[in-house]
């Protein structure tokens, strides 16, 4: 049986690391997420109360509305396999990059 690490590294398409806000819809309930990376066939999202492996979801963001299936989940992030390919660079260009909250907090603290 493959481990989560095996599934995460067995990528068929190039993934683009990013950090932008999105929404995962599970059973008609929206869950805010951070999209950590994206390719034409899938994405890794981070958040709380994420769907479990095998669940069908809808992933939404600017220029993105795609149905997919969760292929792995570790509690704080999950991998989604899209049912139809997308244009990942167009999606990344359309969504504002979220700053790293930890880095921002440290910078504010250092300014005093």
Descriptive notes:
With 112 residues, the chain is α+β, with helices and mostly antiparallel strands. It is built from three helices and six strands; from the N terminus they run H-E-E-E-E-E-E-H-H. A six-stranded antiparallel beta barrel has the order 1-2-3-6-5-4. Strand 2 and strand 3 form a beta hairpin. It is globular and about 30 Å long. Mean pLDDT is 85; it is low at 103-112.
> What is the strand content?
35-45%
Largest sheet: number of strands, sense, barrel closure: 6 strands, antiparallel, barrel
Number of beta strands: 6
Number of helical runs?
3
Oligomer: single chain
Which blocks of ≥5 consecutive residues have pLDDT under 50?
Answer: 103-112
Short description:
This protein has 112 residues and is α+β, with helices and mostly antiparallel strands. The chain is 21% helix and 43% strand.
Characteristics:
single chain; 112 residues; alpha+beta; six-stranded antiparallel beta barrel; 3 helices; 43% strand; globular; disordered C terminus
Which helices and strands, and how do they pair?
Blueprint: H1 4-9, E1 16-26, E2 29-38, E3 42-46, E4 56-61, E5 64-73, E6 77-82, H2 88-94, H3 101-111
Antiparallel strand pairs: 1-2, 1-4, 2-3, 3-6, 4-5, 5-6
């Amino acid at each position: 049986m493959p481990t989560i690490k095996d599934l995460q590294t067995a990528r068929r398409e190039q993934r683009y690391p990013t950090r932008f806000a999105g929404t995962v819809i599970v059973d008609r309930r929206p869950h805010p997420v951070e999209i950590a990376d994206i390719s034409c066939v899938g994405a890794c999202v981070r958040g709380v109360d994420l769907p479990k492996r095998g669940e069908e979801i809808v992933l939404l963001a600017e220029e993105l509305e795609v149905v997919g299936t969760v292929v792995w989940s570790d509690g704080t992030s999950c991998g989604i396999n899209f049912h139809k390919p997308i244009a990942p660079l167009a999606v990344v260009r359309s969504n504002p990059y979220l700053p790293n909250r930890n880095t921002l907090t440290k910078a504010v603290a250092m300014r005093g």
